[in-house]
Specification:
Layout: H1 4-8, H2 12-25, H3 44-54, H4 80-83, H5 101-106, H6 110-127, E1 132-142, E2 145-156, H7 205-213, H8 222-230, H9 240-249, E3 253-256, E4 259-262, H10 264-276, H11 284-298, H12 303-323, H13 327-330, H14 337-350, H15 362-371
Antiparallel strand pairs: 1-2, 3-4
Helix pairs in contact: 2-6, 8-11, 14-15
Length: 375
């Protein structure tokens, strides 16, 4: 759900805040911090009721609803095996509050309604018939070059009735006229378009959440890649928004024009960690520790041994980081608001005046805090 943040210009934290209101206050969606996309098979009767109820009001009144298309198994929606013992299932409208849903929906704020609409739309799509169409592919040899295009002719709209037409989904493949194999075609006009390659787009909060969930794609080691897939990436649905908010609060990343950028301090932190403690900026480390946890389950190690290993590695990394000199790397990067407040608190507690540049110089700010550790 947090992945829609970037599309709407919302922060991941805002998505969770609005979602929590729909869950806690209005009680019209199910638990929102689940990682799975599956529903338990016991919910099939309730899903039919939700499908029918949603089709009677709001933006989903698109003709007669008919019966939902129940897709079972791991390639579908309802799969006990796909849940794999998860205690929570995919987010859907709450089947227990359908009787009062129209009135509750009418009283929602604009943001609450927008998020609920998205949840309802995706649910209706998952329960709708397949989209049926004919696709025509055309290749046209002209002199020594071969040009190709394709188009579709729709027969059954199916789940596309509920697609979001406000963004990319609005772009349909062109419809082609009736063609026969081997027929000649007349060139009416030709145009040369000059284009250049573009760098990958910067992440926004939504695409960063997606990258965290799919962090396995950044790992080369096959075993670690597979383990991180099983672990569902870095963080959880319940923590990824706070991780991003924490990075922003610490002044390591910033938002500009809806995109995320590393700050000078953020780049400096990465450079230092990459040099002296590369495991801390390697997504494969998450997979390594997940594998250690697997060892507890299989009897290969004990919980006490695992905790001791984590503590020892943490102590080692802290020792390494304490020996590095960040001043040159950080230059005059601005400290975070949190660091500035910490300096002011230390100055008040110790009676020691802070450096004159502590509000603008990260290195000076950090040096003062290092010289006056908490007692």
């Amino acid at each position: 759900m947090q992945e829609i943040a970037g599309r709407w210009g919302w922060t991941a934290a805002k998505v969770m805040e609005i979602g929590q209101a729909l869950y806690d206050r209005h009680k019209i969606i199910t638990y929102l911090r689940a990682e799975t996309r599956y529903l338990p098979e016991v919910l099939i009767p309730a899903a039919s009721e939700i499908f029918a109820a949603l089709s009677t009001f709001g933006p989903w009144q698109i003709g007669a609803p008919g019966a939902p298309n129940i897709r079972k198994g791991k390639q579908g929606v309802f799969s006990d095996a796909g849940l794999g013992g998860e205690s929570h299932h995919a987010i859907i409208p709450n089947p227990k509050t359908l009787a009062t849903l129209p009135d509750t929906y009418a009283a929602l704020s604009e943001d609450e309604r927008r998020l609920f609409d998205e949840i309802a739309r995706l649910f209706l799509q998952s329960m709708s018939p397949d989209y049926e169409y004919d696709e025509t592919s055309v290749t046209l040899p002209i002199d020594e070059a071969v040009y190709a295009t394709k188009g579709v002719v729709s027969h059954v709209e199916g789940w596309r009735l509920y697609r979001d037409t406000s963004g990319k989904e609005k772009e349909d493949v062109a419809e082609l006229p009736a063609l026969e194999h081997g027929a000649a075609a007349e060139i009416v006009t030709a145009k040369l378009s000059e284009r250049t390659t573009r760098a990958p787009e910067r992440l926004n909060e939504g695409t960063l959440v997606k990258a965290m969930k799919n962090a396995a794609q950044f790992i080369r080691d096959p075993a670690l890649k597979e383990r991180l897939k099983d672990a569902k990436g870095i963080g959880t649905q319940a923590t990824r928004d706070s991780v991003i908010a924490g990075l922003k609060e610490q002044g390591l990343i910033m938002t500009k024009g809806g995109k995320l950028y590393p700050t000078q301090a953020g780049m400096a932190v990465f450079s230092i960690l990459h040099k002296v403690a590369p495991s801390l900026v390697d997504p494969g480390t998450t997979a390594v520790w997940e594998s250690r946890i697997d060892g507890i389950l299989t009897g290969g190690t004990t919980l006490d041994a695992f905790v001791s290993e984590v503590a020892a590695e943490t102590e080692r990394l802290i020792g390494v980081l304490r020996q590095c000199e960040p001043t040159a790397a950080f230059g005059t990067a601005a400290p975070s608001e949190k660091m500035i407040k910490a300096v002011m608190a230390v100055a008040k507690r110790t009676g020691t005046p802070p450096p004159s540049t502590f509000r603008t110089d990260f290195a000076a700010c950090k040096a003062f805090l290092d010289a006056h550790p908490a007692s």
